Amino acid sequence: MSTKYLLDRDRVRELFDLRGSYMAKMGGGYEDDPNPVWHELREQAPVHAGTVHELTGYSGPAFFQGLPHPDRPHFSAFSYEACAAAYRTPELFASSLTPVDVNNGKVAALNSMLSMDGEQHRRFRALVQPSFIPKKAQWWILNWIEESVGLLIDSFIDDGHAELNVDFCAAIPVLTITSSFGISVEQALDVRAVMNRRPEEIVQILEPIVAARRESPGDDLISVLVNAELANPDGSKQRLTDAEIYSFSVLLLMAGSGTTWKQMGIVLTALLQRPALLEQVRENPDLLRPTIEESLRWAPTDPMFSRFVTQDVDYHGVHMPAGSVLHICIGAANRDPERWENPDQFDIDRPLQPSLAFGGGVHTCLGMHVAKAEMRTGIAALLERLPNLRLDPDLEPPRLIGMYERGATEIPVLFG
Ligand code: HEM
Asked: What are residue 325's DSSP bridge partners?
């Protein structure tokens, strides 16, 4: 890797701007704090008819291609209990209404285990799970994370100032996941551009890598996918088809690069706005773990995921016909005062209990330990190498924005 600028900064900015053209379609135009409305909605009832953005009062574009399934009834859950129970009951709240046909000719993240249920989901998830267990965090850190973090800090340390959201937070996960796929640094941003535009074009980038790993496997994720053996119900096993490998890859590349950068920006924003806490964490880096956990509870970057209702049900007092869509508002669940005292307060000393930031049940985020390792390694290195790190008082301070993809605006800092 080159040492000065790892990635073209202007291009990173264009691809990772929450207010840019792609993200605007995902609700990036929403600039308020949704939590006061979510508190009101939760107090009125745990479950409401309607989508989260409509109920929040946001009328701008919130989904990439319009509301999915506009002809179905939509409901949204806001209490911790209603959200957690929906996650725990996949027979009633399913990820898809029909089994996924991965070999249907479409390369897409939705054409993967993300949309699978039951046995099909279990078989596909089992193929990659071993690469994402907590014990593997060190493999990710040593192979892919530490070096990128170090080189990124090298690229701005002599300037005395930096913009951390894009130049640091956005770059780390995209470099981590693409290099774990054997994709070169030069092509890392092409992957993000393709993901924003036409995910099926990823095939052109991956095809030569898949062919090379079939010839000679390496210690990377493509080799894992190429060698994976899917267990059939009759006990026989088979290698993944190319279509299965490509859709799996799109899911991992998308989930791996699109989320962690925003969450890391949220952690940094929370810390930089609380200089005393920042100092405490700098002096005792062990506090980074509870700080990251608290940021995930306080402001999960993706505050809503959806499920299909498989049969007529009365759920928390609301009748939902089979075929409806239930939106699980994990952002609201994570601030439910029934579970967390003073939920709006950012408090790293609160007793730790799991939040729904990484979802729940069988689809709980596969990459959560990688995401936490990236945030820990990145922020620990910033605190260690940049003395007197602080917000630049002459520039606009960061704010959290976005409806379904929440994250920080620019994070301008000074140091030294
Ligand atoms: C802070 C960063 C992250 C957050 C907040 C996050 C959040 C989530 C959530 C809430 C889900 C559940 C979706 C649902 O219920 O339908 C999920 C699923 C998933 N995540 Fe993450 N994620 C993060 C980082 C990552 C990373 C770094 C990777 C990969 C390297 C990843 C890979 C996945 C995959 C593959 C799934 C689908 C799991 C399944 O369907 O069984 N995520 N993530």
From this structure: 74, 308
Whole-number Å distance between alpha carbons of 28 and 24: 4
Closest ligand 1 atom, residue 374 Cα: 27
Q: How far is CA 104 from CA 107, 120, 178, 308, 335, in A?
A: 9, 16, 25, 21, 40
Average pLDDT, whole number, for the chain?
92
Radius of gyration in angstroms for the set of CA atoms belonging to the chain, rounded to a whole number:
21
Q: What is the pLDDT of residue 13?
A: 77
Of 231-235, 277-281, 396-400, give the lowest mean pLDDT range: 231-235
Mean pLDDT, residues 24-29: 76
CB 79 within 8 A of CB 48: no
- pLDDT digit string, tens, across residues 212-262: 999 999 999 999 999 999 988 888 999 999 989 998 999 999 898 889 999
Tokens of 269: 């924003």
**Span 138-146, average pLDDT:** 94
Q: Above 90 in pLDDT, residue 12?
A: no
Please give the structure tokens belonging to residue 355: 């939040």
Contact 64, 25 (CB under 8 A): yes
Q: Cα(172)–Cα(185) distance, rounded to whole angstroms?
A: 11
Q: Map out the domains of the chain with their CATH numbers.
A: 9-388+401-408 (1.10.630.10)
pLDDT at 20: 66
DSSP label of 104: S
Q: Which amino acid is at 174?
A: V
Q: Which residue has its alpha carbon closest to ligand 1 atom 37? A: 114
Residue 278: pLDDT band by 50, 70, 90 thresholds? very high
Distance between Cα 114 and ligand 1 center (Å) = 9
What's the 365 CA to ligand 1 centre distance in angstroms? 4
Where do the H-state alpha helices sit in 273-402?
A: 275-283, 288-298, 330-333, 368-385
Q: Hey, whose CA ends up nearest to atom 18 of ligand 1?
A: 365
Residue type at 27?
G
Ligand 1 site, CB within 6 A? 113-114, 125, 177, 251-252, 255-256, 259-260, 263, 300-302, 305, 357-359, 363, 365-367, 370-371
User: CA–CA separation, 403 vs 397, rounded Å?
Assistant: 20
The pLDDT value recorded for residue 2 is: 43
| 3-state SS class at 267 | helix
Cβ count near 45 (within 10 Å)? 15
